[in-house]
Amino acid sequence: MQPKRHFSLAGKLTLLLFAAMCGAVVLGALLIDWFDNALLGASITLLLCAIVTPWIARRCLARQLSLFRALSGSVASFRDGDFSFSVARRSHDELDDLVEAHNELGRVLREERQSLFQRELLLDTVVQNTPTALLLIESRGAIVYGNVAARQLFHDGRKVEGLRFEQLMEHTPGPLREALGAGRDRLFSFEHAGQEETYHLARRDFQLNGRVHTLYMFKRLTAELNRQEVATWKKVIRVISHELNNSLAPITSLAHSGAELLRREDYEKLGRIFETIEERARHLHGFLRAYSSVAKLPVPELERVDWAPFLSRLQQHYAFTRGAIPGEAARFDPAQVEQALINVLKNAHESGSAVDEVVLSVRQLGRIVRVEVSDRGPGMSESVLANALVPFYSTKRTGSGLGLALAREIAEAHGGRIALANRDGGGLTVSLTLPVD
């Protein structure tokens, strides 16, 4: 409920001015009558008014002046981050709205600071206890922040803030220093606490308080990779067993049939038997060769490659419509990238798309180059998209599931990636992204 206002601020000032004028008139009349001289009386009256009026005004406005000083001091406290001040007021006039707004602002700022403090406390608790080791380095190389996992990984649980990053790295294992020197995200393994551990290193630069800082994130992946490794080996064994059985079972049966034909001296059918055995052996050889290409991918040998002649050679393997290409050359291993694109184009042709609707285009986006192969086949379902890059996964009856997996290995060996997405109106786009340098 709003308090009742007795006098407005304007009313108080009007009353003060009216009282001063009345007092001046009465005083002037008395002095003129006393001295019997109008000029002298008026002069003395003006002198007394000039002396007394400021004193009366100050006395009457003392509360307002005190309020203004209180408000000024409270605002200064707000500026310094102290929101505990509020202003009390006993008078009831227009300044009450200002005081109430000021006190409400202080209350809101106090609540916001308390909420912010609680969020910061929660964030600090989460960051300190996350299993990912975090190191924040400022531009001059000093460590600004390290959580519990970082202290355990690098400094035997001791505080790392204030140390030089180079000083901390002197006592770390070689694989870790090599990963940091690579300048990009990567996986690495080294012995820690008596056992082999695998970590993923991610590095991000950003501005903090107007200065460049670097955040290093070391995520321990040993347990997850072990589970994935076991699952992958099981799948590999199932796929290889399936392929071996598909070839060895008919070869065994045909060998037995050939022996029976020899025993009966029936040589006429032996030619067809040997042809079938040769075909199954060739298929098995091709499967093992494809598996070996994924398992033993060599380190890319980078060189400058012009796109026009490179794509012309690629068109000799599979036809496609050439889209836009950049005029600048790029650095990559031409043999490996060609093999990756051959695998992608092969899938595009096998999708049922018309040949003239298989389009290959190249776009340079800043420091990366993106090669896109698009078709107008049926596209992929969500489950197939999620597994298409997994080795040995295939929806084709005769597919090995290694084409896209090999393309993925080649892209990642170059520091890039591969992505699949369905197109509007039907079809699929496979994007191979490579760094420019």
Notes on the protein architecture:
- This protein is of the alpha+beta class and about 425 residues long.
- It has 13 helices and twelve strands.
- It has four domains: about 10-115, no CATH class; about 130-220, Beta-Lactamase, CATH 3.30.450; about 225-295, Helix Hairpins; about 305-435, Heat Shock Protein 90, CATH 3.30.565.10.
- Helices cover about 55% and strands about 20% of the residues.
- The strands form three sheets. Strands 2-1-5-4-3 form a five-stranded antiparallel beta sheet, with helices on both faces.
- Helix 1 runs antiparallel to helix 2, helix 8 runs antiparallel to helix 9 (about 270-295) and helix 11 packs antiparallel against helix 13 (about 405-415).
- The longest helix is centred in the middle third of the chain and has 42 residues, at about 220-265.
- It is elongated, with a radius of gyration of 42 Å.
- The two termini are about 70 Å apart.
